[in-house]
Every structure is written in structure tokens, then in C-alpha cells.
Amino acid sequence: MSGSTIVPWVVGNWKMNPTRAASEQWTKEFKQLLQQTPILAEQCHLAIAPISLALSEIKHQLSGTPVNVVTQDVSRFAGTGAFTGEISADLLADYGIQYVLIGHSERRELLGDEPQVLREKLKLALKAGLTVIYCVGESLEQREQGTAEVVVLQQICDIASVVAPEHWEKQIIVAYEPIWAIGTGKTASAQDAQSMHEKIRAGLLQLTSFGAQIAILYGGSVKPENAKELAACADINGALVGGASLNAQSFYQIVEAFAQ
Ligand code: 13P
Hints:
The protein is of the alpha/beta class. 42% of the residues lie in helices and 15% in strands. It has a single domain (9-259), classed as Aldolase class I (TIM Barrel, Alpha-Beta Barrel). The protein has an 8-stranded parallel β-barrel, surrounded by 6 helices. The protein starts with 8 loop residues before the first strand and ends with a helix.
């Protein structure tokens, strides 16, 4: 527990996982865990980001629970039209999807999500009324060169031109995910994470009068074993969980750590 007034978010990013049968089993187990010990909306917000193919199905399976459904990506093209393979923010909203991840390092590194592309996606997502979980984070090389803070703050500044005051207030969540900690088992120490979160908070306060109320999530090898220590940090307002979110029990334990 951090003492912050921000209600934490715990978001599971399933990436390109799991199979249909495994996700059905997950929702069944997670619903049972919530039934045994419910998580109240004022304690912690919950969300899961499945593959886009499964968004509607998982949303249906989780209806009646506090778990929100998040899309892992959004098109940089608007509305409807001849854009094979794309899903626009407008169509996501039309299908009842209210949250989107933008700027994940895997998309930045592997799938061409340059700052300009991210701005286009973000602009359309915000316009369609979606809440954006905007991911930032430095590489190991950048950390070793001592440029981590500059890199991360630049990633925040990259989007400032397309985020209006009302968006900062209601539609932006930031996730700090140091690339070297993703899927590696190496978590940033709680102190290192808190130190970067503090800098992100200061950056947000300079950009918007709503800077004090924006949730800043930590991501990178979050597990039940380290969740409590991370949750105790003043500026860590939740977690973006990859690997450990694929197991309902582990994900629930992480949620519990932040909900306390
Ligand atoms: P891991 O928790 O598997 O390190 O992944 C973190 C992540 O990339 C979440 O978006």
C-alpha cells in the first residue's frame, strides 16, 4: 500500500498468448478467485489484454466481474475502410472495448511504432473515448549509458502535442517498463522503479495540472514475490504484468498486493 490517493491498476498483458482453451480456463479460475475474495473498485482496477481475436469472447466471459478488457494495439487509421488487417479506435469503441495499450516496447522495437505512429494512434484512441495505457521504458544500453531518464521523459513528451487537458484528466495511464526487465526475470529494484516513477510524476506535473492524479504502473517481471514491495512505493500506482498474468492464481496474488 502506497498511501497515494490514486486507485491502483493491475493490468495483465497476455501478448500473443494463450490458446482459446487456456484462456477459458483462466477466466473460470479468476472468476472463482474473485468470488471467494472480491476486489472492490475502490481498492484496485483490474484489466486483461488478450489477443484482439479474443477481445469480445473474453469480455463476455468476464461480464459481471470488475475485470476490464484492453486491446494490445489500435490502428493509426480512423473509422472504417480499406485497411486490411487493421482495427480502428472507432470500431473498438463500437464493440465496447474501452482501453488500449499504446507504445509497448515490443511494438516500438519489432513492429514500427515510431513516435509519429504512436501520436497518430493515440490521437484517434483519445478521440474515440478510449483510455490509453501509454508505455515507456529504456533499453539496457540506455540505462548503462546513463540516459534512461532522458529517454523516458522524451517518450512522455513525444505525446504531449496530441493529449488535451481533458485527456490527461481521464484517459491517460502511464506504464513504465524498462525493456531489460521484460520477460527476463530481472525486475528493477523497488527503489530504482520508484526513482524513475518519481521523475515521470515530476514530468507529468510539468505537462498537465492533472499530473498528480495519473496512475503510473510498473511493468517488467512483476510476480507475486515482488508485487508487495513494488506496491509499497509512493509513485507506483499499479502493475502491467506479462508472464505472470497468464496464471490466474499468480495474477490474483499480484492484484491482492496492490489492492491492500
Ligand atoms: P513480463 O511481466 O513478462 O516481464 O512482461 C512485462 C510486459 O511487457 C507487460 O507489458
